[in-house]
Specification:
Blueprint: E1 2-8, E2 14-20, E3 23-26, E4 29-34, H1 43-53, E5 57-61, H2 62-70, H3 76-84, E6 88-92, H4 95-101, H5 107-116, E7 121-123, H6 135-150, E8 157-161, H7 167-180, E9 186-190, H8 198-214, E10 220-224, H9 229-238, E11 242-245, H10 247-250, E12 252-253, E13 260-261, H11 274-277, H12 283-307, H13 312-318, H14 323-330
Parallel strand pairs: 4-5, 4-11, 5-6, 6-7, 7-8, 8-9, 9-10, 10-11
Antiparallel strand pairs: 1-2, 2-3, 12-13
Helix pairs in contact: 2-5, 7-8, 8-9, 13-14
């Protein structure tokens, strides 16, 4: 894998070209996430929808793929074909679903799915921090399983999930991880561990980007569970690169205000995307396709804004976002 800074923008915003497996990915980038823990439709339907609509990337959980396999539903064949056709596949560790369903997710199951499913990226075997786990326990688990996970696959690019009980702990853990593992080029951080407010989140991502720069690395920062367009824009200017979330299939996004609404309200928007212009389409499918279109073209505009050295406020102004929102976000930088 090769990471090149195509353009450096204002603050920590940047456009990167990631080359891998004869494919290329431009950041900022959004992976529509599919998970049985939060997706409100059958995951086979959502996976099939993304694959048939040729959205450039997808995130699927190893946990869910095993559950489907045990039901003799071999969706991995579709994913393998999607991957072969140029789709970018990210396999998530499965801990989120395991925690949600109070399951018994084992490393051996995670490893099995990694070996039989074609993918471009995969995250490390993880452990939730929801129960107030100490930083010492986090570090001990990470030290064992990040190294162990990385060895699971030689044909996929590794993403190390990082946790911290506070800003200092997170930065220290990342600094230690990168200094001891030079081959790690991508780290992932759960949005919920970046702070309770967008201000807190921008501060910690900015600090993490600074820590990475001090290590003289060009590491990609992936934010797990972040799909809100305003959050994505702010965190990109703070230093984040890629994102994933289930937002695309749970709500309908108003392209003018970026507000979330009922999936059934998509047809009410002032929107001329392919989905909204199509008459004979199921309303759920219309909403999903509308959202995928929104993310795709929104990120194209965000990249262009960064390339033109526009500030976050200038980008949001060009998107006609509420001036109070712009004023408050501008204070973060």
């Amino acid at each position: 894998m090769k990471i090149e800074n195509s353009n450096m923008g204002e603050n920590n915003a940047r456009v990167c070209t990631i080359s891998f497996n004869e494919k290329k990915l431009l950041t900022p980038f959004y992976f529509p996430s599919i998970t049985s823990a939060e997706t409100r439709s059958e995951i086979t339907e959502t996976i099939d929808f993304i694959i048939k609509r040729n959205y450039p990337g997808i995130l699927v959980s190893c946990y869910d793929l095993l559950q489907l396999e045990q039901k003799e539903i071999h969706i991995d064949k579709q994913i393998n074909q999607y991957h072969l056709n140029g789709g970018i596949v990210l396999l998530d560790s499965g801990e989120f679903e395991n925690f949600h369903f109070r399951g018994d997710w084992k490393f051996e199951n995670y490893e099995k799915i990694l070996k039989q499913t074609k993918a471009d990226f995969f995250t490390s075997f993880d452990k939730t921090t929801e129960f107030g786990i100490s930083q010492k326990e986090i570090d001990e688990f990470s030290e064992e399983y990040i190294i162990k996970s990385e060895k699971c696959s030689q044909d996929k690019n590794f993403i190390a999930i990082c946790h911290g009980i506070d800003e200092a702990s997170m930065c220290n853990s990342i600094q230690k991880l990168l200094s001891e593992n030079e081959q790690i080029d991508i780290i992932a951080i759960p949005e919920r561990e970046c702070g309770r407010t967008i201000s807190d989140q921008c501060k910690i991502i900015s600090k993490i980007r600074q820590t990475i720069n001090e290590c003289k690395k060009n590491t990609i920062i992936h934010i797990l569970g972040c799909g809100n367009p305003i959050s994505i824009a702010a965190l990109v200017y703070a230093g984040a690169d890629t994102f994933d979330a289930v937002d695309w299939c749970r709500w309908s996004i108003d392209p003018k205000t970026w507000q979330y609404g009922n999936l059934a309200h998509t047809k009410l928007f002032d929107c001329d995307c392919d989905a909204c212009d199509t008459k004979s389409i199921d309303e759920r499918d219309r909403a999903w396709l509308h959202n995928l279109n929104f993310y795709y073209f929104y990120l194209v505009r965000l990249r262009r804004s960064i390339e033109k050295k526009k500030t976050l406020a200038e980008f949001l102004t060009s998107e006609n976002i509420d001036q109070k929102v712009i004023s408050n976000l501008s204070k973060l930088f």
